[in-house]
């Protein structure tokens, strides 16, 4: 039995070699230009994606050094969506780990690990479904204050927008304690006017609240306005004893910060000058 004559997969002309004498198309195994699947010499359609051979047949180009091949059946038009999906998933994993870092003893519910080299890369396990929006915001605040005290400005600027948005989402639940956190974050990223506004908002509701005067004083110092800083620290010192006697829960949680501010206020009242504002401390 004589062999069945081979035809060009592109133009249909009879061929006997590796290339068609009529159109120059390759004969034998080729590659689908749509999905990259191998094509037989007699195939009229790609067995993977159904693309007609005449529009898809082409010899496979040699791979570039270090290039990663596309998954079988995936065209270039789908690669962008694939990469975007992977990037979003990686970001979510990092954020889960960041929020979980100081949430207490590990729980068996969910585990996530941040990639090496990312800010706050740790291994942590916690049940995030039990956290309230306020708890999540406070965890980010603690993270930012720790980074700020360590002098890691780039990481502070990375996490600050997330934390500020988390507190903004609290709406009416933004109490003086939360406003202090927002103000200290804004001071850490170099936005003293915004921090002062948080202090003013606290004082409108509670004119003697120490957090309001503390934010006003530190914002004025950050702007280099020492007369305003002295006045704010003087008001802080004037109200200190009476306010601490109220034993507000937020004062207990920020006892070290308040003590630092009191020392600074006493220093300025005694005629001391230089030095910066007292820094925020995490819970």
Keywords, separated by commas or semicolons:
283 residues; mainly alpha; Serine Threonine Protein Phosphatase 5, Tetratricopeptide repeat; two-stranded antiparallel ribbon; 10 helices; 7 strands; 50% helix; 6% strand; rod-shaped
Give a brief outline of the structure.
This protein is mainly alpha-helical. It has helices at residues 53-56, 76-100, 133-149, 153-168, 176-188, 192-205, 210-222, 226-245, 249-253, 255-269; strands spanning 6-7, 14-15, 30-32, 38-39, 57-58, 111-113, 123-125. It is rod-shaped.
What does this structure look like?
The protein is mainly α. Among the domains are: 88-131, no CATH class; 132-269, Tetratricopeptide repeat domain (Serine Threonine Protein Phosphatase 5, Tetratricopeptide repeat), CATH 1.25.40. Helix content is 50%, strand content 6%. It contains ten helices and seven strands. The chain has helices at residues 53-56, 76-100, 133-149, 153-168, 176-188, 192-205, 210-222, 226-245, 249-253, 255-269, and strands spanning 6-7, 14-15, 30-32, 38-39, 57-58, 111-113, 123-125. The protein has a three-stranded antiparallel sheet. The longest helix is centred in the first third of the chain and has 25 residues, at 76-100. The radius of gyration is 32 Å and the shape is rod-shaped. The termini are far apart. The model is unreliable at 64-76 and 101-126 (pLDDT under 50).
